[in-house]
Amino acid sequence: MAWSTQTWVMAFLAPIIVFMAGHLFLGIARKVTARIHRRIGPPVIQQYIDVMKLFGKRESTTHGWVQDMGALFAVIGVIVAALFIPIGGDAVLSFKGDLIVLAYILVIAPLGMALGTGSTGNPNSAIGVSRGLMLMMAYELPFAMVLVSVILYYDTASLAEIVEAQGSFKWAILALPFSAVAADISLQAMLGEKPFDQPVAPSEIASGPMVEFGGKYLGMLMVWHAMAIVVEAGLFVNLFLGGGAVFSGSGVLPLIGNIGVWLVLTLVMFLVSVLINGVFGRFKMGQSLRFYWGFPTLLALIGLAWVVLNNLEVIY
Amino acid sequence: MVGVFSVEMVLGLLAAGMFISFLTYRIKWVSGLAAFLSSTGAALVIVFMGIFEKIPGNMSELELFDHMSLLFDIDWFSYLFMASIGVIAPLILMYSFQPMKDAARERPFYGLFMLSLIGGIGITIARDLISLFFFWELMTWSALLLIDGKRKGAGRAFKTYLGFGMLSAGGILTMIAMVASTGQGYFFSDVFIALKDGSDAFRIIFLIVGMIAFGSKAGLAPFHIWAPGAYAHASDSFSAFFSGGLSKTGIYGTFLVVDVFIGMGILATYGSWNELTGIGLIIAIFGAVTALIGGVLAMFQDDGKKLLAYSSVSQLGYIFVGIGIGGSVGTAGALYHVLNHTLFKTVLFMGFGAVIYRTGEHRLSRLGGMIHVMPATFWMFLVGIFAAAAIPITSGLASKWLIYEAALEKGIGVMVPILFLASVSAFLYSFRILQGGFMGQLRDEFKDVKEAPLTMMVPMGIIMIALIVFAFIPGAPMELISRAMQDIGMQAPEYSTIELGSGVGTYSGLVVMISTGIGFVIACIMFFAGPLGRKISLRDTFTAGEEPMDRMDRKFHYSWNFYAPYERVLKPYFNRWIDKAWRKLYRGANQVGRLHRTVFNGDVTAYLWLIFVAMIIVGALLWQYGGWF
Amino acid sequence: MRKVADWASARSMWLLWYCTGCGAVELPPCFTSRYDMERYGIGPMATPRQADIFLITGYLSVKTLKRVVRSYEQMQDPKYVLGHGSCTIDGGMYWDSYATVKDVGLYIPVDIYIAGCMPRPEAIFHAFEKLQDMIKKGEAAGWRRYKDNYRFYRDNQDKVFKRGPNWALEEPVLK
């Protein structure tokens, strides 16, 4: 891994791309949801306006520096994750074995935010975070199995190499269909879309972790949310949809083309979740656990078994 | 000649300290000072032993009787464990000054602590089974006496630890007997020969007995049930040493049995594929199950120390996975996790112990908001939590990463989701203890709680700095680990100071920290783009418009019955059926034991008759075989 | 920069979803599919910390006034209050009741009153558009009036309800 100028440029470019794309995607999602409800919906740039309004508030209340730190941690965590995800087949910082490290990096943001929310002294935020963690326990089982299937199938734990191996449309979704479906179901909870949006249930727990965040702190959390959905849906794209590495060759033009393809595919995956979100209610917490450790785990297990049996030379 | 930096020096210093502590136990500060000074001296000797590379030392022999001598030696592998136990001991002793000073009862705390320390270190330097057994028992019984009797459930913890201590002791004795039955001696080299020449059944039984004996000390399921009670009810300062230091002796013993005595090469002959032995896979499965059970049960605990105790059980399960998978990456991961766990479990127990010391409350449902009165303790505790949960900004991820890589390399990918689930449960219980204890509303009765005393903060700070520094340079502990592995005949995976390698990938600690730095810069730019925040008090919070009329500090703190939805779903499966099985066994054994009451029924005349009958029988035997009359 | 912030403020207004009185029944039609509120960028929010607009929907009983003032003070500047319905102007249908507030403007600063009992969604949208114009021009300064005339508002509030020991909200800091 080289720290060339290109790396440094991408280091500051990648978060910006993810940031701009995230808000745009959320805006498109709101429009799509509105059309499902047979409404008109806000303009697609509405999320940018929301963030601008939040940062333009004349005052923001805070319960102390720990809450500030929580908001900072959320953004830091998602930026670090954005630096490790290959965007258009070219991650800023990739090294072998980083899929496992990435799985742990994705947790920095929620845990940092948990710190910030805990310091507000509001029980709703603690309940929201505990629900978020419980949900994580539910969907991580099938998701971890899917990750292992992909790692074993491509015999590498480096995300960049997995993307490379899917060049020329040999996408993993065709090779590992069961795992892909299980991963998509896990993605629904990772994105926090219904029926798995228990952590932020506005009517049940007064928006959970965000209950005492206002003004620029809420702005930072919105930035976190926007970047997180791109990172997570983008992870799915990298694992199963070829990571957008469609145009080969070095140079700026293929790179831009790849990034564009990656963004489009990420948007497609995100819209799949939004479509499901538009028509579902919300599960209870125990229902989520029972669901995720049932059907999706079964699918992931089938996918894993398929990979393991294919890889073995000796059947034991 | 006994050099300055030698094992004899270490033991000598510790023994001197122990004797002084015992003799002066009524004068607490003398007792404590003696213990601290001697353990610091011993720690310094240990550190310099490593720096000046006086390893391997000379095999010293201690003659006891005519045909019996004890062997002691040090090599890098033993040194790793000895250093882990020996270096944190002075830190914990310094930490314990304040609570011991204020403790009401007088008890030989420091003397017993030193005894257990001597026991722990002696185990690592023993080179024959008898001295191993001697030091093992020394450690076990002194730890037993440090279990407090104050709280409810302490009696049961005491009895359970006693029972499992005897199980371990019985196991080691069985191993000694087995080796002796083949005609060999009891030196480690003899054990190796006995197993090499023995039959398959012999080796398997030896392995099982060894795993039970040492695994139960390390908390391997299903022999883990003593750990939560013992760690929770032990004296607060001792819990850190008990869980952070002494549990490693069980790991050391397991390594001895699996890698030194029997050897992975021989185990491989019992079925292996893809460089993974069948028996190793069984050990790894036990380890994974332990990790999951420990993690899930930790989620549901209200007592903070019990939560940390179950967390210990869970983390040690990871180490067993590493031992079972074996090979260069797996063993390296296991040894690295030994070092990591020693550090972060110590700081976790210290941090929570500081809270207990200042507030007198150990139940999370009665605590809350400690961050506002004890911020420094909170930060050090937080770094420990980050390491336990393997967040990439501390060194905790490096060891877990190695173990995952080992599992993936050998193709038993099925283990990884279970381990990952155990890791997620680590996030859950970490959040529970953070939220319940440190965050949320501050209770009125704890408003005037002071920060932890300096003697408590300094050791915690040292460990915290170590955890963060090793995040940048994960390769630094690898130096020690690779030498340790060479001494048990294995090659460590490639590494550089800032990067670790395995067969499948690399992990660069520096890269992660640099990217965190970049993220920090960008986030700060965003943060200062808006106006500065206006600080509001903790009581000024969203209450749906209602002005709270009564105790906000109690009613607005969420710390009771955390994770209730999961408890409802998982309780039927994790309802501690292992505990219940053991209890049934205990009752059965009790019943059998009571049969003796039919003979020894407390009646004096019956005893007189028994003595009379015994004398007749002995006389008859002597008449028959003695030839004396 | 202030102009940009005001423009964004106008295009993205978040309501505090606090239905204070019977006038609130006209709000659900506003954000459902028939009269879509979201296309203006207006959406409901759960807590005062996240909200910009406070709708006093319908009559304001004395009991509710205390909670309204507490929620209002927990909101962050800039914040706008809309008096929704005739009851907020002069007591409306409950002009002779002992338990309702006759003039909301004595207790919290109101930017726009909407007459009607109750105002239909079209009227509410008209008010929102007017509010957007006022914000863009910088005329919606109810929050500043509250800070500058805090004693006036506070005296009126104290005549009607008492703040207890757990109120825990600071008095507004004057700029």
Structure keywords:
heterotrimer; B: mainly alpha; two-stranded antiparallel ribbon; C: 175 residues; alpha/beta; Rossmann fold; three-stranded parallel β-sheet; two-stranded parallel sheet; 5 strands; globular
Structural class of chain B: mainly alpha
Global morphology of chain B? globular
Compute the number of helices of chain A. 14
How many strands, what sense, and barrel or not for the largest sheet of chain B?
2 strands, antiparallel
Count every beta strand of chain B, where a strand is a DSSP E run of 2 or more residues: 7
Helix content of chain A: over 70%
Q: Output the strand order for the largest sheet of chain B.
A: 1-2
Number of strands of chain A: 1
Backbone shape of chain A: globular
Q: In terms of per-residue confidence, which ranges of chain B show pLDDT below 50 for 5 or more consecutive residues? A: none
Q: Oligomeric form of this entry?
A: heterotrimer
Tally of domains of chain A: 1
Mean pLDDT of chain B: 83
Going by helix content, strand content and strand pairing, the class of chain A is: mainly alpha
What does this structure look like?
The complex is a heterotrimer of chains A (316), B (629) and C (175). Chain A is mainly α. Chain A is built from 14 helices and one strand, in the order ααβαααααααααααα. Chain A has helices at 5-36, 46-55, 65-84, 98-105, 108-118, 123-154, 159-165, 172-175, 177-191, 202-205, 215-240, 252-279, 285-292, 295-311, and one strand spanning 60-62. In chain A, α3 packs antiparallel against α5 (108-118) and α3 runs parallel beside α11 (215-240). Chain A is globular. Chain B has two domains: 7-148 and 156-518, no CATH class; 599-626. Chain B has a two-stranded antiparallel ribbon. Chain B has a two-stranded antiparallel ribbon with strand order 3-4. In chain B, α15 packs antiparallel against α19 (454-472). Chain C has seven helices and five strands, in the order αβαββαβαβααα. Chain C has helices at residues 2-11, 27-31, 62-74, 87-90, 121-137, 142-148, 150-160, and strands spanning 14-16, 43-45, 53-57, 80-84, 112-114. In chain C, the strands form two sheets. Chain C has a three-stranded parallel β-sheet with strand order 3-4-5. A two-stranded parallel ribbon of chain C has the order 1-2. The longest helix of chain C has 17 residues, at 121-137. Chains A and B meet through α1, β1, α3, α4 and α5 of A and α17, α18, β6, α21 and β7 of B.
